Each structure stands twice: as C-alpha cells, then as structure tokens.
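Whiteboard transcription, Tuesday session. T.W. wrote the structure tokens on the left side:
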C-alpha cells in the first residue's frame, strides 16, 4: 500500500494543474536542430508523460508501417519510408528524443526528400508531415497520461477498499460494544440474583447450623 501511495504522489507531482480548465496544447514547431550529423530543418514537438524509450519504440513501429528499414539507437533512421501524404517517392526520416524533465520529452524529426530537408516552403508536404508528427505526439501524450491515470485509479481503488474495510471494522466495533453492553446488563442482573440467592442460602445454612448444634448438644447430654 505504501508503494501505491508513493506512485500516486509521483504521478500527482508530475502532472500540471488543470483546475482552471486549461489544456495541453500540442504544437509542432519548425526549427533548425542537430540531426544526421549536422544542423537541418526539423519538426519539433513536446510529448508529455511518455518516456523517451516509449516514444522511440512507438516511432520505430510507425516508420515500419511506411515500409521503411528502421535502425539506430540514439537517433532513429527510417530508410526509404513511403509516406504518400508527403511524397509519391520514398524519403528518409531521422528522429531523436531529448528528455526535458520527468514529464516532458522533446521529439525532433527531420524528413529528407532526396537531397532536400523538408521545410514549410513546401507547404503541402510540410503540412502532411506536421500532421503526422502532431498526431503521433497527441497519441503518445494521451497514452502516457492514460497509463498514469490507470495507476492513479488503482491507488484510488485500493484506498476505497481500505475505507470500506475501516467502515466495516467500525461497524463491527460498535456491534461489539452493543454485545458487551448487553452482556454487562445481563451480568448485573445475574449479580443481583446471585446476591439474593446467597442471602437466602446463608439463612438456610444458619438455620441448619442451629439444628446441627442442637443435635450435637443433645448427643453430648446422653450419659
């Protein structure tokens, strides 16, 4: 239970406050970033509540869905990805992550079309790439938050179970008190009856003792 409480505390601390009705707005930005051994035009987005490892694993899977040959560890290289929304020809996609903090990860993606790095001047293709990156970031953020929500719900369910146990124990204790009170009342009545019976029995003993004493005197008087 202590571990679940610690998990809940960590999750709560890692999440921004939305008490004022605010929302997480996923925004893709166009920036020059270090990728593929140089500085190139890239699409950059912040992903929430998913670890770099989770992001990289999911991105590799997504790139394989475009028939790309995927490799790389620190930087993911998707060779000859066929993304028709961007181009009828294959393109090379480079991606990497940078951990910002425990809650946020910077995700950097560069699309190399032939010899040219995709930028917003190529409006239609850039928009398609932007949508791909944004949809991916939204999904990863939602999935990450959902995973933390499920962990938090598990803590909540355990706390509710604990509360039910405490309520049941409280009811049992009250029932015990009622039972004890009934036993006390019965014991008090039994004590009164016992005392009356003792007094009666003592009177019987005194009378019988008198009989014995008289018989003993009579016995001793015989000569």
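and on the right, the sequence the group agreed on:
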């Amino acid at each position: 239970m202590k571990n679940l409480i610690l998990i809940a505390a960590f999750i709560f601390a890692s999440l921004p406050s939305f008490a004022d009705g605010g929302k997480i707005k996923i925004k893709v930005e166009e920036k020059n970033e270090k990728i593929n051994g140089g500085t190139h035009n890239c699409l950059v987005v912040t992903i929430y509540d998913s670890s770099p490892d989770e992001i990289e694993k999911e991105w590799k899977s997504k790139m394989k869905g475009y028939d790309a040959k995927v490799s790389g560890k620190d930087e993911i290289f998707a060779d000859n990805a066929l993304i028709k929304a961007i181009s009828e020809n294959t393109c090379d996609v480079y991606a990497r992550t940078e951990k910002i903090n425990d809650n946020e990860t910077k995700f950097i993606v560069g699309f190399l079309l032939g010899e040219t790095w995709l930028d917003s001047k190529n409006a239609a293709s850039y928009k398609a790439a932007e949508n791909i990156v944004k949809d991916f970031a939204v999904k990863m953020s939602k999935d990450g938050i959902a995973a933390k929500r499920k962990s938090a719900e598990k803590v909540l369910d355990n706390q509710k179970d604990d509360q039910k146990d405490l309520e049941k124990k409280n009811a049992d204790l009250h029932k015990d008190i009622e039972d004890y009170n009934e036993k006390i009342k019965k014991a008090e009545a039994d004590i009164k009856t016992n005392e009356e019976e003792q007094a009666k029995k003592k009177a019987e003993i005194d009378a019988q003792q008198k009989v014995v004493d008289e018989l003993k005197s009579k016995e001793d008087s015989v000569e």
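Someone added at the bottom: DSSP finds three helices and seven strands in the chain.
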